[in-house]
Amino acid sequence: MISNIYLAEFLGAAFLVFLGDGVVANCLLNKSAFKAVDPPVFITLGWGLALALPVCLFANISGAHLNPSLSIGLAITGQMDWGVCWGYVLAQMLGGFVGAVFMWIAFLDQFDGTDDPGTIKACFCTAPAVRNYPVNLIEEILITFSLVFIVLGFGNAGMGYGVNYVLVFFLLTSIGMSFGGITAYGLNPCRDLAPRIAHAILPIKGKGKSDWAYSWVPVVGSLIGAILGAWIFKIFPW
After folding, report:
1. Which domain holds residue 160?
2. pLDDT tops 80 at residue 160
3. What is the CATH number of the domain that holds 221?
4. Contact 54/47 with Cβ under 8 angstroms?
C-alpha cells in the first residue's frame, strides 16, 4: 500500500536522524559520558550504522531511499514516478525533523550543560571546515554522486539484501572517513535541512543562529550529485 511506503520512509528518516545526530551529540555535548571518545571515528561509524539499520528495516517496503535528493534524482531520470516521489520527499523531511526533535529530548540535560553555539548546532546540521561556497558545493556534489551511484550499483549487482545492508554501512562510513572533515558530508536534505529547521525552532538555551547562509549548499549539492549519480548509473553499460 502507498501509505505503508510513506510510513516506512518517514520512520526510516526519523531513525536515521535520531541515531545519526544522536552520535554527534553523544560525542560533543557536555555532561555526556562519551564526550572523551575520539569524535571523528565514533561519529563516522555511528552515522554508518544510523543509515544501515533503517535500511535493514524498510528496504523491502519502500526501497529505503531516506533521502529526498535520491528520490528526486530517480524521478528526474525516469526511475521513479513523480506522484510517488513527492510523497517520499514529504515523508522523509517530516521524519528528519521528528528524529531531530527526539534526539534533542533525549539529550536535554546535555544541551542545557553546553554553552557553545557551534557545538549545539553541530548536533543538528553540517557546516564546512573552510567556508568557500563554490568549493563546498562541488564537494557535496561529488560525495552525493558517489553515494547514489554506488548504492544503485549494489542493487544492480544482484547481491542479496543482507549483503547490501552491510555494504551501505561500509559506504557511508567510507564517505565519512574520507571527506567528513571538509563539509561534514551533508548528502541529504532530511539529514541536514530538516534538523536545521528543528534547531531554529526548538527552545535551546544558547543555541545561536542556524547558519541559513550555508544551508543551501548541502541541499543543492546533494540534489545535483544525486541527479548525476542516478543518470550516469542509468546510462552505464552494465
Report:
1. 2-235
2. no
3. 1.20.1080.10
4. no
**Cα–Cα distance, 231 to 62 (Å, whole number):** 21
Residue 193 cell numbers, joined: 535541512
| Nearest residue to 209 (alpha-carbon basis) of 136, 121, 104 | 121
Q: Specify the number of domains making up the chain.
A: 1
**Which residue type sits at 25?**
A
Which residue do the cell numbers 555511528 mark?
Answer: 46
Read off the pTM: 0.96
Cell of 131: 567556508
Neighbouring C-beta atoms of residue 115, cutoff 10 Å = 10
How far the first Cα of the chain sits from its last, in Å, is 31
Mean pLDDT of the chain: 94
- Residues 223, 51, 161, CA angle at the centre, nearest 5°? 105
Query: What pLDDT is stored for residue 36 in this prediction?
Result: 77
Within its chain, how far is the Cα of 74 from the centroid?
A: 17
Confidence of residue 162 (pLDDT cuts 50, 70, 90): low
From the centroid of its chain, how far is CA 66? Answer: 8
78: exposed, middle or buried (C-beta count within 10 Å: 0-12, 13-18, 19+)? Answer: exposed
Compute the residue count for the chain. Answer: 238
Q: Which of 83, 97, 60 is nearest to 189 (CA)?
A: 97
